[in-house]
Automatic annotation (TrEMBL):
Its EC number is 2.1.1.37. The active site is at C125. It is an enzyme of class 2 (transferase). PROSITE patterns: C5_MTASE_1, C5_MTASE_2, SAM_MT_C5. It catalyses: a 2'-deoxycytidine in DNA + S-adenosyl-L-methionine = a 5-methyl-2'-deoxycytidine in DNA + S-adenosyl-L-homocysteine + H(+). This is Cytosine-specific methyltransferase. GO terms for molecular function: DNA (cytosine-5-)-methyltransferase activity; DNA binding. Transmembrane segments: none annotated.
Length: 646
């Protein structure tokens, strides 16, 4: 029985699983796949052939085909999604586990031999903790485990397919959290590996409503182009598509998996009233023009029916009468959400397969139907989903919105056609900044060239707010306090210096931190000690990050480098890309812009510190001294203002 009908307060009706036939050009083996690809190359030589890994139901596949490409391979280790993909797309659609090394090699061989042009997909990626990465490195070195962790390392499988098949373009879609991790370990390492393979790499967190998707849904997109080609991001639409435009033409229904309205049946459809709706109906066969399929939703409990009737789109779960709240309102304050017809929907996620309380219809007292969820994701009405309604909801929630795939696919195809060279790679930019930092003697924050983390902590807390003249005068005095014990031994001198510059509170803070580290038997300031000091509230997180980054002894592993985004660094990154909107999105686009300049690996440490110095002393808010900036030759801001030097 479908789990959505298990509530005792609702009438239990078994939902029907939809079985879909294979696409007319479906193939079942490597030989048939090779023949299909050869025929398509002969008959349609200008169409790019696409393989979609972790393809799900095929949202990205559908979008890429709408952009003029041809999808010939799909792989996903979820049987219902695989059946859906096999119905809608030609070629091979396989239920293979890409965490297995042998499967990765087999897939790569198929794609290489058939000269697949575009590799697309969204490998599941879970950010690592530093402790987790350290443990993995140790076990790999000791031969205790395979380098690929099936739970977390599917992104490595994806990269390995790229390395072995070398497509012309790579498109990766993922959750924004990949770019919000403190070190951005996975994303930065992927970008570096792709650049080493000869690809230019572009990354951005996109809002899908900017591309005509009627929901608030942010996704991380990575595009890599072989032969170092330039990628230009597609322009957003003029105005978002509202929920009313998306689903208001669909007929009223009651909650419940009623047989007459189930997967194999249909509702009567009267016609589209909006351009978006007409697009969703464009490929529905004429014989089905008066039908709407999959317009079914889960049963509604009697108490939920009362609750829904009391709600508008501003009502929170905690606003409902206590007798109607079956969950703790202090924890589940937004457990129920009625959608707003005149806005975009909240993000459709796979959780909709478990319950639909986040997606109560704007006007009717029920949760949204399978077809409404598909419309919100921009799947057209002829697109069907294999399995039960619950399986369909899961596939829809996990999918890439086709309209987003179409926008990205069109931009990739245009980049390949134009063959315009990209600018410096991440590694090149990092090397340029690294060299500048190494050879620059006079800097505004001399402690960043110190030998230890503790010197950075002392400089940041005690001298950072002082004038440049004071910093240069006092740094030689405090430079010898290399570790906490040195500072405590020179406590009188510290207090004297603090009194000179009116920084008594900073001196007291330094003494407290030093004493706590000494009590913890810390001879030097380790990364663990820094993190603990931040957690304890003794050390500002920004100072802790900077101390992690700077100092000759600061880093033992490349992947522990944080990505710091402050006003000075972000100003440099946004000007370099001529995208001031990044300055407004500090924790998303801003982080990606900074990561683009510092790369990944050993040079990125100095590159990152160099960005901070450039932002403080060169790339000022007014009258930047572009002529002395190491980035001037490739900086969009300098070029726009004709500030580049010969």
């Amino acid at each position: 029985m479908d789990p959505d009908t298990s509530h005792s307060a609702t009438k239990q009706v078994r939902s029907i699983a939809l079985r879909l036939s294979h696409h007319p050009e479906h193939v079942s083996d490597a030989e048939g796949f090779a023949l299909l690809c050869a025929r398509l190359r002969r008959d349609q030589p200008d169409r790019l052939l696409v393989a979609d890994l972790f393809s799900g139901a095929g949202g990205l596949s559908y979008g890429l085909e709408a952009a003029g490409m041809r999808v010939v391979f799909g792989a996903d280790h979820y049987s219902e999604a695989n059946a859906t993909h096999a119905h809608h797309f030609a070629g091979l659609s396989v239920d293979w586990d890409l965490s297995e090394v042998g499967v990765v090699e087999e897939v790569a061989a198929l794609l290489r031999e058939s000269r697949i042009d575009v590799l697309a997909g969204g490998p599941p990626c879970q950010p690592f903790s530093k402790a987790g990465r350290s443990g993995i490195r140790h076990r790999v070195r000791e031969g205790l485990r395979d380098p690929i962790d099936a739970r977390r390392d599917l992104w490595r499988s994806y990269l390995e397919v790229v390395r072995l098949s070398m497509p012309r373009a790579v498109i990766m879609e993922n959750v924004p959290d990949m770019a919000l991790d403190r070190e951005m370990f996975i994303l930065r390492s992927m970008a570096l590996d792709l650049e080493h393979l000869g690809y230019s790499v572009s990354t951005r967190i996109v809002q899908t409503s900017d591309y005509g998707v009627p929901q608030h849904r942010q996704r991380l997109i990575l595009v890599a182009l072989r032969h170092n080609l330039e990628f230009v991001w597609p322009e957003p639409v003029e105005r978002p598509v509202t929920l009313r435009q998306a689903i208001s033409d669909l007929p009223s229904v009651q909650g419940g998996w009623h047989i007459a309205e189930n997967r194999a049946g249909f509702q009567t459809y009267s016609g589209a009233i909006d351009p978006f709706q007409r697009e969703m109906r464009a490929r529905v066969p004429r014989t089905h023009a008066g039908r709407i399929y999959d317009h079914v939703t889960r049963p509604v409990r009697e108490d939920d029916l009362v609750a829904f009737d009391l709600m508008d789109n501003t009502t929170r779960y905690s606003d409902l009468p206590a007798e109607l709240r079956r969950y703790r309102s202090d924890i589940f304050d937004d457990k129920y959400k009625r959608l707003d017809y005149d806005s975009v929907s909240r993000t459709i996620t796979a959780h909709i397969a478990k319950d639909g309380y986040w997606y109560i219809h704007p006007e009717q007292n029920r949760t949204i139907t399978v077809r409404e969820a598909a419309r919100i994701q921009t799947f057209p009405d002829h697109f069907r989903f294999a399995g039960t309604p619950t399986a369909a909801f899961k596939q829809i929630g996990n999918a890439v919105p086709p309209r987003l795939g179409e926008a990205i696919g069109g931009a990739v195809a245009a980049a390949i056609r134009s063959s315009h060279p990209a600018g410096l790679s991440r590694e090149d930019t990092a090397a340029l900044l690294d060299a500048w930092w190494r050879t620059t003697v006079r800097v505004s924050m001399p402690w960043l060239k110190g030998a230890t983390r503790w010197q950075v902590v002392v400089g940041e807390l005690l001298l950072e707010r002082s004038s440049q003249l004071v910093r240069e005068a006092l740094w030689p005095v405090v430079r010898d306090w290399r570790e906490p014990a040195d500072t405590l031994s020179a406590k009188d001198a510290l207090i004297l210096v603090a009194n000179w510059i009116n920084r008594q509170s900073a001196a007291e803070q330094l003494i407290r931190i030093a004493e706590s580290l000494i009590l913890a038997d810390a001879e030097s300031v380790s990364l663990v000690a820094l993190d603990q000091a931040v957690l304890d509230g003794a050390l500002p997180s920004g100072v802790g990050d900077l101390a992690t980054l700077a100092g000759d002894s600061a880093i033992t592993d490349d992947d522990e480098l944080p990505v710091i985004v402050n006003q000075a660094i972000l100003r440099v990154a946004s000007r370099y890309a001529n995208d001031l909107s990044r300055a407004k999105n500090k924790n998303s686009d801003g982080r990606l812009a900074v990561a683009r300049l510092i790369g990944f690996g050993r040079p990125s440490r100095n590159a990152h510190v160099a960005l901070l110095e450039i932002g403080r002393s060169i790339c000022s808010t007014k009258d930047p001294e572009c002529s002395v900036c190491p980035l001037v030759r490739t900086c969009a801001y300098a070029a726009l203002h004709s500030l580049a030097t010969d």
